[in-house]
Task: inverse folding
């Protein structure tokens, strides 16, 4: 937000020690154009993803609003201003022309801040996405709303930031000196996107269910992920894979840890014996960020594990919206209603009309989560490339099967762009009305 410069009307009276504003308020000239001095700390010295202090060039977003009012377009005085640090708790404006100034009138204000900074924040809703765990700091959402009732006479803004997500850490130990290098850890069926309201500090609109691969140390000694807080452990499995061995721990099997709460780190100390194919979780403690219960677990390996993660089976397929969010995923299942087709080679040729039999395509159709959808320009449609296989095409193409319009269909294939929009190709299996093709 740019600085605001105020012009005092020439009819206003100049007093010896104060300016008298046109509204009649006394204004202390020592406070005019005084910058807000930002000091930011993480609550109770809670560590972020990599260390216990800010890193060089860490950036936070700051809002200044009228004191006591909710953050809104009518109350905001400084809108999502980027502040950076050299690695200390002292922050300064990334662009000096955007430095936040206290109101000229001396009126009190509140400050709201968040980390990490995003340039595009619409309607004070911060988009959260934890699907990629390779850079922990980039997804460790912090929030501050403690700095309130400040004014130009006290320009020091001491902001306390609090973790808003949950952190899961696995400390992994292998018996018999077996190397853990190359071990992979994932959590299945996990919501990865949400909306964070910077006014209320609340998370909502969980979506984009997928498997989350943990960040794992090169030597396999630990793995960790920052996740959305949740009490829904249904169909969520912790899966560890080393070589040809797979170990599965259903989160719903724990009687002590029944949810992932915000600001909380859950630590599982795991002992593996890959040579004998055994696994034991020695303890499961909720530690800093917030202390909590512990859980002692002992697990056995499985030789017949079927990945039932979202999109991995016909019993748990992607919706059309989830398929759009997971483009470039292979061998996945998608469910939707057939709503129309492309009559030529362009996206603009999409039609729902079945009047001209000669124009109906054998090679494509479009599915949607809305059986009555009539446009491919909405975010609920997926283009489908009908395979040439004589074991599938004769049964699902619209030209030969016009009765399939508005019928629900299950498809297994590879998610990739088709007709200049999200799509699915290389279909190997189809289910219509409970009948699977190829038969």
Result:
């Amino acid at each position: 937000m740019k600085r605001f410069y105020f012009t005092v009307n020439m009819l206003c009276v100049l007093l010896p020690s104060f300016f008298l504003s046109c509204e009649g308020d006394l204004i202390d000239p020592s406070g005019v154009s005084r910058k807000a001095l930002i000091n930011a700390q993480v609550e109770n010295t809670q560590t972020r993803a990599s260390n216990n202090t800010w890193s060089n060039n860490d950036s936070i977003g700051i809002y200044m609003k009228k004191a006591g009012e909710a953050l809104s377009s009518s109350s905001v005085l400084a809108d999502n201003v980027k502040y950076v640090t050299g690695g200390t708790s002292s922050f300064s404006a990334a662009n000096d022309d955007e430095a936040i100034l206290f109101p000229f009138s001396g009126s009190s204000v509140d400050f709201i801040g968040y980390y990490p900074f995003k340039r595009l924040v619409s309607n004070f809703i911060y988009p959260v996405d934890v699907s990629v765990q390779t850079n922990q700091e980039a997804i460790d959402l912090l929030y501050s709303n403690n700095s309130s009732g400040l004014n130009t006479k006290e320009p020091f803004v001491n902001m306390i930031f609090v973790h808003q997500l949950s952190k899961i850490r696995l400390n992994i130990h292998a018996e018999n000196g077996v190397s853990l290098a190359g071990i992979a850890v994932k959590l299945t069926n996990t919501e990865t996107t949400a909306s964070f309201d910077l006014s209320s500090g609340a998370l909502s609109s969980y979506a984009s269910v997928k498997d989350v691969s943990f960040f794992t140390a090169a030597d396999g000694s630990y793995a960790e992920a920052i996740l959305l807080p949740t009490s829904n452990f249904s169909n969520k499995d912790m899966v560890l894979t080393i070589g040809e061995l797979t170990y599965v721990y259903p989160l719903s099997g724990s009687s002590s840890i029944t949810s992932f709460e915000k600001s909380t780190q859950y630590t599982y100390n795991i002992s593996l014996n890959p040579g004998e194919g055994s696994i034991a979780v020695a303890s499961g403690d909720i530690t800093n960020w917030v202390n909590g219960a512990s859980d002692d677990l002992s697990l056995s390996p499985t030789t017949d594990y079927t990945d039932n993660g979202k999109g991995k089976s016909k019993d748990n397929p992607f919706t059309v919206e989830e398929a759009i969010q997971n483009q470039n995923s292979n061998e996945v299942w998608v469910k939707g209603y057939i709503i129309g087709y492309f009559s030529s080679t362009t996206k603009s040729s999409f039609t729902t009309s079945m009047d001209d039999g000669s124009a109906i395509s054998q090679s494509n159709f479009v599915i949607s989560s809305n059986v009555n959808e009539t446009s491919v320009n909405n975010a609920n449609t997926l283009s489908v490339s009908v395979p040439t296989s004589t074991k599938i095409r004769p049964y699902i193409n619209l030209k030969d099967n016009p009765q399939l319009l508005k019928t629900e269909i299950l498809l297994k294939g590879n998610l990739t762009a088709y007709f200049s929009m999200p799509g699915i190709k290389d279909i190997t299996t189809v289910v219509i009305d409970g009948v699977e093709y190829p038969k």
Remarks:
- The longest helix spans residues 320-325.
- Residues 166-299 form a domain with the Immunoglobulin-like fold (CATH 2.60.40.2630).
